[in-house]
Amino acid sequence: MARIALDEKDRQLYESATYGIAGNHSGVQICSWTKKALRGKGVCYKQKFYGVDCYRCCQMSPSVAWCHQNCIFCWRPMEWMKKAEMDGAEVDAPQDIIGECVKQRKRLLGGIGGAGDVDRRAFEHSFAEFPSHWAISLSGEPTIYPKIGELVKALRGHKEVKSIFIVTNGQEPDRIKQIAKEGNLPTQLYVSIAACDEALFKKINRSICKDGWQRLNRTLGLLKKLDCRTVIRFTLIKGMNDSPGQLRQVAEIFERSRSDFIEVKSYMHLGLSRKRLSRQNMPFHAEVRKSAAVLLETMPSYRFEDEDERSHIVLLKRKDSRHENIIKKA
Hints:
Oligomer: single chain
Shape: globular
Mean pLDDT: 92
Order of helices and strands: HEEHHEHHEHEHEHHEHEHEE
Largest sheet: 10 strands, mixed
CATH superfamily: Aldolase class I
Structural class: alpha/beta
């Protein structure tokens, strides 16, 4: 059985972009919000919305260079992603991935500790303690990793872990069904969407799967059946998916999904996305709020819940959701 692994060229590319490579196919990176939190300069909107410990976050992926899509808004290096299959190959064990991610995260954090404005107490907690939040979303598509459910289960075995988020592009609905059946769903499952119909999906998300739109909709259809918190993240791209007609169309999809939360988030003109989109495609926060209001007109089951102007994001919540906003424990 062949072993899945990054080749040396790809490994060097990721390391030059400040990723820590964990084992053969996983990666970790220190989020800009973690760096800000350690300096007392603000926290990620996920801390405001859900109670995530920003400075104790481990942002990682078990499939750092494997993805089905080449989304035009992705600020990650999707140009380096040439693979979308791990099944039938030898992959790293979940515990090995966790151990290597913790090791690489500490290595990357080390340099921040010398900053003159760092909060020493926060840094010591972040550096010395096991991460309390795991954001399985860094780069690539995490559900391609065939042992993603076992990874969640292994993380839950660490008493320090408070929350586990997985962000998926929805191209592996059978994998989602599998981990749900095994009882290995994360604390919160995100499904990323940016299109209201198949034609726009092909233009924006550019899935290599011929039935990519159908796969996404199968995943969205699962959300109301899952025994975990569910979130749809809608990336708003000015001039591409923000017309009133498009918003009303995608709102109907959201309403059918019965997702607990919907994040309406601006495309951010960062990283390699700048090669594909212009700064004019990035909505201001006022425009995000206006789009969210249009969505709510077609979604009677949802209400405005919160917002974070710095991140250009508005949070909507299903009125009959059983979940509190702030997470107590994974």
